[in-house]
């Protein structure tokens, strides 16, 4: 799986709340340092460089923790290295007065995705260095304030970040479990359909075939001929239904005339084309349903993409399928690979393909088997 983009990482309610809090804390606590930088007797170039280092550090403080939240620990380590480098630049330019930025640095480290215990060690190191620097300055009464602030804020944000990551992992696991439950239910339905409905349709087809043979063995009569025809139709319907059940059970809807007729209705309606479609496909023999499905798919696709039609008409019989429209009609160009594929499939089934102008004034695609 590819890593999310910067925009995908930084958008959402979680990062938005972090940015709001970061902006508020920066405005509230950074103001004294800005005054210090611009009030001291230093060259303007130094003031601009110090201000730029502060801007760069606080920009990294606001962005990098959220940037690392959906990435690996290597990215988190790089983000922390950038934060430490920018903070070191600020301290190098501004001096000891810039050590007040370490609580911000501790918060950013706590929120960054890091290996276990690394954030703990870094926050403890910051706190220890802060304590040592305060004691070295001879301020024992103030020595514990900033280290305690670094520890409390850093550990609090670290715990908060771990809770967010655990919640995200829990939601992902819930989604996987839900998908697995859906897949298991689909498997159960497919198994039951195959065991019950598939078996029943198979028995119907076999019984109809046997009844037809028994009737053919009896004496000729109009009633017998009609009964043979009815039994043949029942047999074809059962075979067609059995083929649809097998395709559904296999999890592959396949290309068949029933599925493509439903897809054609949706595609034409979405394109604003009036659809004149048959209501049933029972008249189509099972052995031709895949071929007629391919013809429907190719014909309706061409109508939607190229015809500019207002109306599309589809006709089905036991041996023919017709797709025509009232669009621009056949052009002088070479037929595309879709129509070439239809010709190949029709030839295998012993059928013929005809294309040309339709009675509606547009394009006409017909296959006769």
Secondary-structure topology with pairs:
Layout lengths: L5 H5 L2 H27 L4 H24 L5 H22 L7 H10 L6 H19 L8 H72 L5 H28 L7 H14 L3 E3 L12 H19 L3 E6 L3 E6 L11 H12 L3 E6 L5 E6 L1
Parallel strand pairs: 1-2
Antiparallel strand pairs: 2-3, 3-5, 4-5
Task: Calculate Rg over CA atoms.
Answer: 37 Å
Shape call: elongated
Overall residue-averaged pLDDT value:
79
Q: State the low-pLDDT regions, or none.
A: none
What's the number of domains? 3
End-to-end Cα distance, whole Å, is: 48 Å
Order of helices and strands: HHHHHHHHHEHEEHEE
General description of the model:
This protein has helices at residues 6-10, 13-39, 44-67, 73-94, 102-111, 118-136, 145-216, 222-249, 257-270, 289-307, 337-348, and strands spanning 274-276, 311-316, 320-325, 352-357, 363-368. A five-stranded mixed sheet has the order 1-2-3-5-4. α5 packs antiparallel against α6 and α5 (102-111) packs parallel to α7. The protein is α+β, with helices and mostly antiparallel strands and 369 residues long. It is elongated, with a radius of gyration of 37 Å. It contains eleven helices and five strands; from the N terminus they run αααααααααβαββαββ. It is 68% helix and 7% strand. It has three domains: 6-176, no CATH class; 185-249; 257-368, 2-Layer Sandwich (Heat Shock Protein 90).
